[in-house]
Design a protein that fits this description.
The protein is built from six helices and 14 strands. By secondary structure, the chain is an alpha+beta fold. The chain has two domains: about 140 residues, Thrombin, subunit H (Beta Barrel), CATH 2.40.10.10; about 90 residues, Beta Barrel (Thrombin, subunit H), CATH 2.40.10.10. The strands form two sheets. The protein has a six-stranded antiparallel beta barrel with strand order 9-10-11-14-13-12. A six-stranded antiparallel β-barrel has the order 2-3-4-7-6-5. A hairpin with a 2-residue loop joins strand 3 and strand 4. The radius of gyration is 20 Å and the shape is globular.
């Protein structure tokens, strides 16, 4: 009986999501390194802050890319903690503002310092890291969602349709295809229950669950890549790819993301130049001060 109820809930949930986006189905319990499945090609210049995390020793940009990140200040990149695990700064380079990994004339920037969150625990918790660059980038940094906004968007983001971008595995049905051009896909933020039950975990407040049962997902090569949402008229960083199911076996599943707003203090400690969303200011305060002054 319990299994029947669970099946009915999943079917109902999938049908609801079809109203906003296409969906499919799946199952798996083992975390794996995340790719974008079921997305489409991003237009050049749409995501200037998008950063390819590269193996420094591989000269070919296409083969060097193994994770994603975003520029949050002229010389700082935000990515996943597991993307830098076991690596030194000299092992990594970045390419900022790249769209096509096989056709890019920019300069690869060396990494000066890696700052992993002090409480990082693999995929399980605090999967976030900062890369200080040896030189600055002229590309536009992205603003980070602080949990507050002029629009008054719920800080939990439940039900919001986000956009994910990356160069990860894009086709598991016929061949293992890694695109050279940046891909994007729209994914809804959903209740933690779907990830908790799928991976036998309990998500913390610093994580969020997103995606569909199958067919649209992040995958191998997308780790650290940004989950974005338009807030107060601009694209902001609300999360980054942490872990999900084995997409080669499952062709997509709900994914677990590191929640940006949970790490505002950590980011500000090292990157004071980073920009964050702000709450609406009260318009009544100046009038109140004027009345007090007259009295």
């Amino acid at each position: 009986m319990k299994n029947l109820v669970l099946i009915l809930l999943v079917i109902f949930f999938s049908q609801t999501l079809y109203a906003a986006e296409q969906a499919a189905e799946s199952s798996s319990v083992l975390p794996a390194v995340p790719q974008i499945i079921g997305g489409y090609e991003a237009s050049s210049g749409d995501w200037p802050w998008m950063t390819a995390i590269l193996y420094a020793g591989e000269p070919d940009l296409y083969y060097a890319q193994y994770c994603g990140g975003v520029l949050i200040a002229s010389n700082w990149v935000l990515t996943a903690g597991h993307c830098v695990e076991g690596k030194s700064a000299s092992d990594i380079q970045v390419a900022v503002g790249v769209n096509d990994l096989t056709n890019w004339s920019g300069t690869r920037i060396a990494v000066k310092r890696i700052v992993k969150h002090p409480a990082y625990v693999s995929f399980a918790a605090n999967d976030i890291a900062l890369l200080e660059l040896n030189s600055t980038s002229a590309q536009q940094p992205i603003t980070i969602f602080s949990g507050a906004s002029v629009q008054g968007i719920d800080s939990q983001l439940l039900g919001q349709m986000t956009t994910l971008v990356g160069w990860g595995l894009a086709d598991t049905t016929t061949s293992l295809y890694y695109p050279s051009r940046l891909q994007q896909v729209n994914l809804p933020v959903i209740a933690d229950w779907y990830c908790n039950s799928g991976y036998w975990v309990i998500l913390s407040g610093s994580q969020l669950c997103s995606g569909y049962p199958v067919a649209k997902d992040a995958c191998s090569g997308d780790s650290g890549g940004p989950m974005m949402l338009k807030v107060d008229g601009q694209w902001v960083h609300v999360g980054l790819v942490s872990y999900g199911a084995d997409c080669q076996a499952e062709n997509g599943y709900y994914g677990v993301y590191t929640r940006s707003s949970a790490f505002v203090d950590f980011i500000k400690q090292y990157v004071p130049e980073a920009k964050f969303t702000a709450a609406a200011t009260s318009k009544s305060l100046p009038w109140l001060m004027l009345l007090l002054h007259k009295n």
